[in-house]
Amino acid sequence: MAKLEWKIEKLYQQLEDVFSQSCNQVRKKQSRTYEEMAAENEAQLNDKKKKFKIDDSEEKPIYNPKNVPLGWDGK
User: Fold this and answer.
1) CA angle 22, 38, 42 (to 5 degrees)
2) How deeply is 20 buried, as exposed, middle or buried, from its count of CB atoms within 10 A (0-12, 13-18, 19+)?
3) Rounded to an integer, what distance in angstroms lies between the CA atom of residue 67 and that of residue 70?
């Protein structure tokens, strides 16, 4: 039993800073106002929209009046 307690204590010592940072992050999030949370959510949505934006060139149909087979590059 003492060996198990020793292992747990060593693991706790190694992860102590991670635990304290997690607690601080939770306290920080709990103390924010509604406006701050709404602004953060809006910023995250804008980042996602920018990340998944589709190029206009992919939306346009390919001009192929003679119905020639297209190559690997779509031209």
Assistant:
1) 100
2) exposed
3) 9
